[in-house]
Write a structure and sequence with these properties.
alpha/beta, nine-stranded mixed β-sheet, 10 helices, 28% strand, carbohydrate metabolism, transferase
């Protein structure tokens, strides 16, 4: 008997991840790396979530367009995502802005970052393109979005979040009819249009788009010849298709992947220091909103071969402990106390120190008798003995970056200036 199940559309799709963003609101965290390469969750980088979604959805052709300070990102991709095999009809292309179209032209916008690589994309002969932003934290099955795109006979399908109207003013917002056809695309509206079935909510663009490849290539070529265009999906391509074609909204709640422990559809833009700190610290909760232990939808990354974490000393006042914390491999907690903290690989916390609400990136060393509260430490920071941070706003503002929410961001350059 023949198998009547439809073939997965993901196997005939390419995921194209736009990972060139600077992420300037993350301040010094993006001084040496692009936003998608920023560390997240103890073992991963932000871009690993979009890439893992593509892989778990069944997509086996992936391209990543890089631009701003891309070395850290490219190195991570080469180390952690090099398991695709051409003999299995798989491919993983890292596509830096390499002036392939013009000797003076870098990627001018998100649409141009695809247009400049049209020949590479067309060579694979895929039927569908899934355009993704590389800088958000979420779990999503793109196969469900591809099916909606085909069933609706859409020219473009736009991934959308349901957000309260009052909070939608910073997004591109869809005005849709009862069938979720997009009637109007409004960029950062003062009065966002409500959803027909939920008037108090608005549909905000996630920066995720599905096209048939041939249609997208036609639109990119048309846009490239428009002198008025800014070569951007949100500003140019999508509004044009909404006006002249058929655009459909895809609600994230229908394709969000949740484990049995996740009650809400989880999506975060960790683009500010406060949002970044909060999303990392939330993972230390007993039942966090994001389940990173979900074996049915794993987050793939570069898996470093490191020894286990170690906790040493058991004396009053000098006891290696961590409560409600995530500790990565190769960390040594030597007679120090941690609470609600997240430590990446290779961190050393020395005796009589205490950390609370701390996000500590790889390779940091915390000296003896240091007391840190509500901090983010950039990679490789060496905290001097006895340093106290998080208790004096005015003093900390002179020494470090203090966010609106009171998070202290500390880099090695700031520590070096303390001695001057």
């Amino acid at each position: 008997m023949m198998d009547k199940r439809p073939q997965p559309l993901a196997r005939d799709a390419m995921a194209y991840v736009l990972a060139g963003g600077r992420g300037s609101r993350l301040a010094e965290l993006t001084d040496v790396r692009a936003k998608p390469a920023v560390y997240f969750g103890g073992k991963t980088r932000i871009i690993d979530f979009a890439l893992s979604n593509a892989l778990n959805s069944g997509i086996r052709r992936i391209g990543v367009a890089t631009q701003y300070k891309a070395h850290s990102l490219i190195r991570h991709l080469q180390r952690g995502w090099n398991f695709f095999r051409t003999e299995r009809n798989e491919s993983f292309d890292i596509l830096p802005a390499s002036q392939r179209v013009s000797e003076t032209q870098w990627y001018e916008g998100t649409a141009d970052a695809v247009f400049q690589n049209i020949d590479i994309i067309e060579d694979y002969g895929v039927e569908y393109m899934v355009i993704l932003a590389g800088d958000h934290i979420y779990k999503m099955d793109y196969e469900l979005m591809l099916r909606q795109h085909v069933n609706a006979n859409a020219d473009v399908t736009i991934g959308c979040l349901e957000v309260p109207r009052a909070e939608a003013t910073g997004f591109g917002v869809m005005h849709v009819d009862a069938n979720d056809r997009v009637l109007q695309f409004v960029e950062k509206p003062a009065d966002p249009p409500g959803m027909p079935d939920k008037p108090e909510m608005a549909l905000a663009s996630m920066g995720i788009y599905v096209f048939r490849t041939s249609f997208l290539m036609d639109q990119l070529r048309r846009d490239a010849h428009d002198p008025q265009s800014s070569r951007d999906f949100g500003k140019d391509i999508i509004p044009y298709v909404v006006k002249h074609g058929k655009a459909v909204a895809h609600r994230f709640t229908t394709s969000c992947v949740r484990s049995s422990l996740e009650t809400e559809a989880y999506w975060r833009d960790v683009g500010t220091i406060d949002a970044y700190w909060a999303a990392n610290i939330d993972l230390t909760d007993v039942t966090p909103e994001l389940d990173i232990y979900d074996r049915d939808w794993p987050v793939w990354s570069y898996a470093e071969v490191k020894p286990p974490a170690k906790f040493v000393h058991d004396e009053d006042g000098r006891r290696g402990t961590a409560v409600s914390s995530l500790i990565a491999g190769d960390c040594i907690i030597s007679g120090a106390a941690l609470k609600r903290s997240l430590l990446f690989t290779g961190v050393r916390v020395n005796s009589f120190s205490s950390l609370e609400d701390a996000v500590v990136l790889p390779g940091c060393v915390i000296g003896r008798n240091a007391t840190l509260q509500k901090v983010v430490l950039d990679r490789g920071v060496r905290i001097p003995e006895g340093l106290s941070v998080g208790f004096d706003d005015e003093l900390d503002k002179k020494r470090f970056r203090v966010s609106e929410g009171g998070v202290r961001l500390i880099t090695q350059a700031m520590i070096d200036r303390l001695g001057n």
